[in-house]
Design brief:
By secondary structure, the chain is α/β, with parallel strands linked by helices. Helices cover 30% and strands 17% of the residues. It has a 15-stranded parallel β-sheet, with helices on one face. Strands 16-18-20 form a 3-stranded parallel β-sheet. A two-stranded antiparallel sheet has the order 1-2. This is F-box domain-containing protein.
Length: 598
């Protein structure tokens, strides 16, 4: 029986028809969703294809001189999209994993899957893409690994090649790094870490061994775009950096805006010149022979000196030069035993118009006259810290008269001349006050030398007992904005009444003479109460008042008045959708006050 044959060109009679049909039926590999190799058909997982990636279907079946082959190739190219170029066999792949069906856009500069050119590489990765690493989409893996600490990130690099490539991209994209440098091989460790982070901007180091200028040189060489450096030391480590070495580091880092360093006892003197530096913190300073601040854009400075009586630093000259060369200063903190009224006068003569925060700590020679000089020169202070000074209630009165509309934080700890009357006056005259520290102000001067602490004496004479009773003071504070109040070490306080609806932190450490029956806390938002060194009865009274305050708020939301207004009843629980009152009640239930005894 004769069957019609398909028309085939005579020039192609030597080639089988199924080959041409197979060429027409061939489909390109899917760009995603395929789990089998496009060349051999085996599963991709753990598979390395042995077929030559440069071999194509048309080149296998078609000689160069065949017109039919030319027809088939042209028809295929007209009806199908162009095939991606073959995957390059490289031993150092930039991508997380090696894939067989690689889209041509992977090598395009418009889309860098590795994220080297993107400031946020993880943002351009779609979790739905076929880019998987260890069974996870690349975007998901990025979000997981970027939350690891440096030690965990180094460990993750040893899992597989895909994870190692992802961690490399994370190191390259890192802008902030916080490390604890081990005592052994600190330079080798820092060099290996910092070279992974070319985009590093902020660096914080905790040194467990001695540190010298070699570490500064390593940081300067490895991090050209560094803007913030914080260098702290452990209790056993020594900072051997000198003033000249620190000055060279600051001068070379033209992008540096913040420098914080601890253990600066070996500086001796320094000359800091930088047009970009805006924040400078130096602690443990000792006997500075020369201090030059050539930083016109400096806005915040903190200088803490060691508490040694033989310190020879000339603070008057230092403050005068600092005020003249740094006109944009807004925050000043100086802690030194050599602070005096002369230093305050030198500071007020600088006329720093932008000054908002002033902290002069441990200056026992600072008196009410110093307060008058500060009040006459700087009338817009938001924070004033004169802890350790010799000011009295008169100085507090001057503070209240000058800063009633601006001052929000007042710290007067370790001021023995302040009484409870001065504290009450400050809280009454400063309506914007949010933080107040009066630790060790209302003290019992005979508490440390009390006869009851001496051996062989178990009874206190009645006359001395009456004298101490007269010295005890009571404190009543009513403030609508106060959030933090510190009365630590106020052993001369025996009665306390607080009515502060916004208060959330109260420090009563070592208030060992405060009577439980003379304590009243009307602070519904209280979250933390510090009672280290207090009596057990006082701690129990505080816990009871705090729980009663929270319970009263809870009952306020759980009860309602009847329609006729006759009485209040508890509203029954129901499974209806939550209203605004239910949400408010839930917030009250979640608020708990912690009484910290350790």
């Amino acid at each position: 029986m004769h069957h019609p044959q398909p028309h085939i060109s005579s020039s192609a009679s030597g080639y089988p028809v199924p080959s041409a049909a197979a060429a027409f039926d061939f489909k390109p590999a899917k760009r995603r969703g395929s789990y089998n190799c496009s060349r051999c058909g085996l599963p991709k997982k753990g598979h390395v294809c042995q077929i030559d990636s440069g071999t194509t279907l048309t080149s296998t079946f078609t000689p160069a001189s065949s017109p039919a082959a030319i027809t088939i190739e042209n028809s295929y190219s007209a009806s199908r999209p162009p095939q991606p170029p073959p995957l390059r066999q490289s031993s150092n792949l930039r991508r997380a994993l090696s894939f067989d069906d690689v889209d041509i856009r992977c090598d395009s500069p418009e889309r860098d899957l590795d994220g080297y050119d993107s400031p946020h590489p993880g943002a351009c990765l779609d979790p739905d893409d076929e880019i998987v690493s260890g069974g996870l989409p690349a975007g998901c893996l990025w979000e997981v690994l970027r939350r690891l600490p440096p030690a965990g990130l180094l460990a993750a690099a040893g899992v597989c090649k895909g994870w190692r490539e992802t961690t490399k991209r994370l190191w390259r994209a890192a802008e902030e790094l916080r490390l604890m440098v081990p005592p052994r091989g600190q330079l080798r460790f820092m060099g290996s870490i910092l070279k992974k982070c070319p985009s590093l901007v902020r660096l914080s180091l905790k040194m467990e061994s001695d540190v010298d200028a070699t570490m500064l040189a390593c940081i300067a060489f490895s991090c050209p775009n560094l803007e913030s450096v914080e260098l702290s030391t452990s209790s056993t480590a020594v900072n051997r950096i000198t003033g000249d070495e620190l000055g060279r580091f600051v001068a070379d880092k033209r992008c540096l805006t913040s420098l914080k360093m601890e253990g600066c006892s070996n500086l001796g003197g320094f000359v800091l010149s930088s047009s970009s530096l805006s924040t400078l913190w130096l602690s443990d300073l000792y006997s500075l022979s020369k201090t030059v601040f050539n930083c016109p854009n400096l806005k915040e400075i903190s200088l803490e000196f060691s508490r040694q009586e033989n310190d020879t630093t000339d603070l008057t000259t230092m403050v005068d030069g600092m005020g003249r060369s740094c006109p944009k200063l807004q925050n000043i903190h100086i802690a030194s035993l050599r602070l005096s009224h002369t230093v305050v006068l030198s500071l007020t003569a600088s006329n720093l118009r932008g000054l908002r925060m002033l902290s002069l700590v441990l200056g026992s020679d600072i008196t009410d006259a110093s307060v008058a000089a500060i009040a006459s020169s700087y009338s817009r202070l938001e924070l004033l810290d004169l802890s350790g000074s010799s000011i009295s209630d008169s100085g507090i009165g001057m503070i209240c008269n000058v800063f009633p509309n601006t001052l929000s934080r007042l710290l007067l700890a370790l001021c023995p001349n302040i009484t409870s009357s001065g504290i009450q006056f400050a809280t009454a005259q400063l309506p914007h006050l949010e933080l107040m520290d009066c630790g060790m102000t209302i003290c019992d001067p005979d508490s440390q030398n009390s006869p009851c602490d001496q051996s062989g004496e178990n009874e206190v004479p009645n006359a001395l007992n009456n004298k101490l009773h007269l010295m005890y003071q009571k404190l009543i504070i009513k403030h609508s904005r106060l959030k933090k109040l510190s009365l630590w070490g106020c052993s001369g306080l025996d009665a306390l009444c607080l009515s502060c609806p916004e208060l959330n932190d109260l420090n009563l450490n070592s208030c060992n003479n405060l009577h439980p029956e003379r304590l009243l806390l009307q602070c519904p938002r209280l979250q933390n109460v510090h009672v280290v060194g207090c009596q057990e009865l006082l701690i129990g009274a505080i816990k009871g008042q705090v729980s009663d305050s929270i319970a009263s708020l809870e009952n306020q939301f759980q009860c309602k008045r009847l329609a006729d207004g006759c009485k209040r009843v508890r509203a029954p629980d129901c499974s209806s959708p939550q209203t605004s009152g239910d949400k408010k009640r839930r917030r009250v239930m979640e608020r708990q006050c912690n009484v910290l005894v350790d």
